[in-house]
Amino acid sequence: MKINKNRTQLHDEIKSTEIDLDLVMERLSLLANDKRTTAIMLWMGIGESTYTNWYRNGSVPYGIIVRTLLAKGISLDAFFAPQQRLEVPDQLVLAEQARAYSGTEWQAEVIRATLEAKKLLARANLAEEELYIKFLVDLWLVDEGKMFDNRQFEDAVINHLKTLEPQFERD
Questions:
Q1: Are 124 and 132 in contact (CB under 8 A)?
Q2: Could you tell me which of 161, 139, 59 has the C-alpha nearest to residue 50?
Q3: Alpha-carbon distance values, 96 to 71, 107, 144 (Å)
Q4: What spatial distance separates the first Cα and last Cα of the chain, rounded to whole Å?
Q5: Distance, CA of 80 to chain centre
Q6: pLDDT tens digit sequence for 38-67
Q7: Tag placement on the chain: N or C end, fewer CB within 10 Å?
């Protein structure tokens, strides 16, 4: 994709869904907190002459950008598709969880989360519905139950579950 700033877009021309180098540099300048190419390249940890090559070739260095963003802990979704809510496939989440935990550790975490979920339901006088337990276990596993230390969070979850209670009574 060659960059030609003086060319107007034809009416029949389909706009590319890929981002161009100008948009990449604009977004990188926001992250680097500086509009100067030199500062952006320094923020990325690469030489300024690299940009000259990108510009000359009309290329977007996705690999370099992705490595930089990941190294700095910046969401790729937010950078490449800020207007979209992208899906995280269950297969990837499950694969990462399987890789992160050995079988015994994972089982112990799920058992602990299940016990904590049942305690919370008992304190709230809610039935031990399977859906409630699965939901609470999922929440607990996000950060090993740390968010449940926040009383406001716990109250919000309980209030939400209580709004679902009449639906179980009808079924």
A1: no
A2: 59
A3: 19, 15, 16
A4: 57
A5: 12
A6: 999 999 999 888 888 999 988 888 999 999
A7: C
